[in-house]
Amino acid sequence: MHTSPNDPKQYQYITLSNELKVLLVHDADAPRSAAALTVNVGHFDDPLDRQGMAHFLEHMLFLGTEKYPRVGEFQTFINQSGGSNNAWTGTENTTYFFEVSPHAFSEGLDRFGQFFTAPLFNEEAVDKERNAVDSEYKLKIKDDVRRLYQVHKETVNQHHPFSKFSVGDLTTLEDRHDKSVRDELIEFYQTHYSANLMALVLLGPQSLDELEAYATTFFQHIPNSGMAKPTIPVPLVTDNEKAKFITIDPIKEVRKLTLSFTLPSVEQYYREKPLSYIAHLLGNEGSGSLMSLLKKEGYINTLAAGGGVNGSNFREFTIGLSLTPKGLAHIDDIVEIVFQYIALIKQQGLNEWRYQEKKSVLEMAFRYQEKSRPLDTASYLVMNLMHYAPDDIVYGDYMMAGYDEALIEQFLAQLSPDNMRLVLVAQGQEYDRTAQWYNTPYRVADFSAEQIARWRDPAISSELALPEPNPYLCEHLDPHPLSEGAELPPQLIQDLPGFRLWFKQEHEFRVPKGIMYVAIDSPHAVSSPRNIVKTRLCVEMLLEATNEAAYPAEIAGMSYNLYAHQGGVTLQLSGFSEKQPLLLKLLLEHFANRTFNQDRFNNIKAQMLRNWRNAAQDKPISQLFNQLTGVLQPNNPPYPVLIEALESIEVDELPAFVEAIFAELHIDTFIYGNWRKEDALAIAETLKDAFRVTDQLYGESQRPLVRLKQSGTLTHEIQCQHADSAILMYYQSRETTPRKIAIYTLANHLMSTTFFHELRTRQQLGYMVGTANLPLNRHPGLILYIQSPVAGPTQLLEAIDEFTNAFALVLLELNEAQWQASKQGLIAQISEPDTNLRARAQRFWVSIGNKDAEFNQRQKVIEALSGLDRVDMVRFIVDIIKPRTSNRIVMHAQGQAHSNLEPLIIGEPIGSIDEFQKGAY
Question: Are residues 98 and 53 part of one domain?
């Protein structure tokens, strides 16, 4: 099996006697063991009169088996074993996965293996879980992604299984007079869930022999019906569905144009990757590119090429463009320019050196790939097991085995107007149909003969050009030798007025990559909502101005980002280190020569307004989270406040604003990875020159937070245009000590599965139900939340209060072994070693921001956790969480479906947000 020289894992591919394909992965350093099993069955296999059946079955397998009959028991076990689990249903696959501490792996597999041999399909659970599927459907009824997907399904060949409704609801899953859905569910399971249609990955620190024994013990009993997967006999689109212009009405204010070409399946060409080659050229963002010309004309904001749905007998290839208002009036022109670029590729773009350049980028990514979480690794390998030859399971995604010009030409020929479907998603167009299930207005029209003639053979604009050879490809890929002290935590190697430089050469992950963080704190940048918005505008304008010149660096394996936060802005660079100083220089030059172009400003302002206004269409629970952080953190205002400030800002205010930021700033820099100390010092000089760190006032920004103190219950209602109601309850720690972090984190860990099981699985209050840790400005916080299609805020509050009132008893009922197992599970999660350079960099950077100069906060929290006993936790629940005594904020939204119910009246409403925030510090 072809593996990366940087990958120490051992792999073994076996087939069990029941024809189950298995990949065993021994990873000596894996902090957890993980399993993923995929079945070659998805919503394409749903019976026509039982749409959503495959998805419903996926839900049901978690809810009790013969050996482990208790509903919710699997999740409880996973949680207590420091793990996580999930599943998803796709078009032709359903995939299940979990991870746990290694000592619990065999018991986890015993439970998991039962899903595929002895599920109970308990009648009460069938009845309840139908409601969970219906809630999941209703939750997304106003989700534009789902609404557009449904139109996609209705505008392809209706004899193709892609056209089926994939989620299911109470009508598709109801009991019918002749047959209960449970009987049909069992029949569907027995017909389709056959071992020869499955693939399994087991990954962990266990030896290959141990993993093989687990595979045999727990999965060899899965029945093999020998059923062959039938091929799909009909195409996704016929000539009747090609050359169509489809307009769709979104809920959010978006303007998206997609050119979609339906191709046969390309799965057999994964070694050559012809479509990657084409997408690489069409999606280029450098000078002379398709994107460059369309932006210059003022038609688009973004472009992406190569996406689209795929299946066993089709592959869509799409070019997606987000349009400006001007672009909306020039759709035919845009499409013509796209076909000009396709013609240019056909004429001049087929060169082996381009293929080799793309190949070398993928080879570098493969050679220096870093570890990911065991669960993520198992999940992507299990899909590769289904689609690639055994030797290519690890390498297949990165492989470019050879330049095949005829093959690329064959696919380019299919990117023609006759084979195109043009989809415009924008408000205010003409629509004459309504999609089923999601009520999406849309219209389908034929292309005119003039359009096809114009697009078929366009003259190529002289402004279009293919990309030049990439100057950012790295040549020196051996990491620097380790310097003395490389194993130490980050060191503060410069501490000057207004400038601090932290440095660490990475000693464990020996990859030629590095990460730089440059945090620019400026009190002026965050002194008012208006300034906060100006800061964000400047960030977007700078990113826009540098995109074209910096794009080749991204292709070569480097990335950069500039983002605003509560103190100012941060610049982050990552990826291969050799050419990062070159990229930094480019970014700083663009910053020094900044211009505030009126057209570009208008465009970016319009985009930001649209994004923030669209947030008002997000699902209620997302809006509650946004409002909560906005109410508590004055430097992080909620969307309505940002919108109000942005509407009146003009471009001529920005130059002076940037100068004022420069008059008082403080820079924290962290250089980490494959760097030497002299590299870090040289980069620091470049930064100090660029930001004139000599002649200004120096000040770190304050990051204020509203402290709840003895507030009792505070409430805040928001208005959402959504049928569902939602509630979010937030508890805040006054202290930021390791002990408090330990208590809040453990409370969340202990509550999460019980809360989910009680309020979602048993009471069926909604699909989105959970608990979460929410630390704000270093203060630990605990959140309980529900979004519900069936109950209003008053009922949701009562259900949560009932839960928190009873939870102390739940803790007292745990036996000592369960209590210790839960604690150890959480300790295992927290002490999990960093999997890669990026994760470690992130942890160090958070520590720097939190003034944890010893970099040992995590250790202190683990020590505090080890010392917590059950009495501490019961006392915390009774004193801090119980409704009668708690200081908390209750955010809520009353859904349109519940407008007839009594409004929630409890505690003290937060009146003026400005007044509320006055005491923040």
Answer: yes
The answer to the question of residue 463 being in a domain is no
Assigned token pair, 490: 């980050």
* Per-residue DSSP letter, 814: S
Question: What's the Rg (C-alpha) of the chain?
Answer: 29
Neighbours of 678 (CB within 10 A): 9
Q: What is the pLDDT of residues 315-357, one digit of tens each?
A: 999 999 999 999 999 999 999 999 999 999 999 999 999 999 9
Kindly tell me the number of DSSP H helices and DSSP E strands found in the chain. Answer: 29, 26
Tokens of 623: 């809006």
- CA–CA separation, 594 and 601 (whole Å): 13
Flag whether 457 is in a domain. Answer: no
Enter the tokens of residue 790: 């069936």
Number of domains in the chain: 4
The answer to whether residue 16 scores a pLDDT higher than 90 is yes
Model pLDDT for residues 170-208, shown as the tens digit of each residue: 999 999 988 899 999 999 999 999 999 999 999 999 999
Nearest to 462 by CA among 259, 296, 350, 257: 296
Tokens in use for 771? 């608990």
CA 815 to chain centre: 37
Q: Which of 738, 698, 709 is nearest to 920 (CA)?
A: 709
Q: In what order do the strands lie in the sheet with 84-89?
A: 10-15, 21-26, 198-204, 33-39, 94-100, 84-89
Question: Where in 577-663 does DSSP place strands (E)?
Answer: none
Q: Which two tokens stand for residue 675?
A: 């760097």
Give dist(CA 412, CA 346) in Å, integer.
Answer: 7
Q: Which of 698, 724, 743 is the last residue of a domain?
A: 698
How many Å apart are CA 415 and CA 408, to the nearest integer?
11
Q: Which residues pair with 446 in a beta bridge?
A: 244
Q: Which residues contact 5 (CB under 8 A, 6 or more apart)?
A: 367
Mean pLDDT for 347-375 is 93
Same domain, 76 and 49: yes
In a domain, residue 236? The reply is no
What value does the mean pLDDT of the chain take? 94
Which residue, 706, 883, 825, 728, is CA-closest to 103? 825
- Residues 864 and 739 sit within 8 Å (Cβ to Cβ): yes
Helices assigned H by DSSP within 648-737: 654-663, 677-690
Phi-psi region of 517 (alpha: psi -120 to 50; beta: other; left: phi over 0): beta
User: C-alpha angle 915/917/921, rounded to 5°?
Assistant: 140
CATH classification of the domain holding 123: 3.30.830.10
Sequence-distant (≥ 6) Cβ neighbours of residue 757 within 8 angstroms: 71, 72, 75, 76
Q: Is residue 532 a contact partner of residue 549, using CB atoms and an 8 Å limit?
A: no
User: Are 409 and 436 in a shared domain?
Assistant: yes
Report in angstroms the alpha-carbon separations of 526 from 394, 522, 607, 657. 47, 7, 21, 12
As given in the structure block, the two tokens for residue 544 are 């826009």
Does one domain contain both 684 and 778? no
In which band, very low, low, confident or very high, does the pLDDT at 52 lie, cut at 50, 70 and 90?
Answer: very high
HEC string of 505-517?
A: ECCCCCCCEEEEE
Residue type, 195: A
Q: Which long-range contacts (CB under 8 A, 24 or more apart) does 324-330 make?
A: 324/255, 324/298, 324/299, 324/300, 324/603, 324/606, 325/255, 325/606, 326/298, 326/299, 327/255, 327/257, 327/294, 327/298, 327/299, 327/300, 328/255, 328/426, 330/297, 330/299
pLDDT score, position 885: 80
Could you say which of 636, 663, 698 is where a domain stops?
A: 698
Range(s) of the domain holding residue 592: 491-698
Q: Which H, E and C letters describe 26-51, residue by residue?
A: ECCCCCCEEEEEEECCCHHHCCCCCC
- Give the pLDDT confidence score for residue 268 in this predicted structure: 95
Amino acid at 320: G
The alpha-helical segments, DSSP class H, found in 388-472 are 405-412, 449-456
